[in-house]
Amino acid sequence: MSDPEKDIPRPVIDENECKGCGRCVAACPKKVLRLSGKLNRRGYDAAEYVGEGCIGCAACFYNCPEPYAIEVHGAREKEGKE
Question: With helix as H, strand as E and coil as C, how does 47-81 read?
């Protein structure tokens, strides 16, 4: 049985790896990412997810220059299961 929480696509951002470039924010077609307005431990304004609306396209992931800053959980995983 599938866990509905795991099926909901969502970006997971490591705020301490994010350098606040805003490329993920600009790339998001649903505009569900924003810069947080808070500085991370490195002094950057990290991106954050607004909490709902992600479609799992992973545009944020592919536009991010930091390899460990963002992951998209539940992204397009359901397509191959149907």
Answer: EEECCCCCCCCCHHHHHCCCCCCEEEECCCHHHHH
pTM confidence score: 0.82
Give the model's pLDDT for residue 7: 81
Residue for token digits 């963002």? 70
Give the contacts of 56 (CB within 8 A, at least 6 positions apart): 9, 10, 72, 74, 75, 76, 77
CATH number of the domain that 50 lies in? 3.30.70.20
Residue 54 domain boundaries: 4-81
Phi–psi pair at 57, nearest 5 degrees:
-75, -20
Facing residues of 45 across strands? 39
Average pLDDT of every residue of the chain: 89
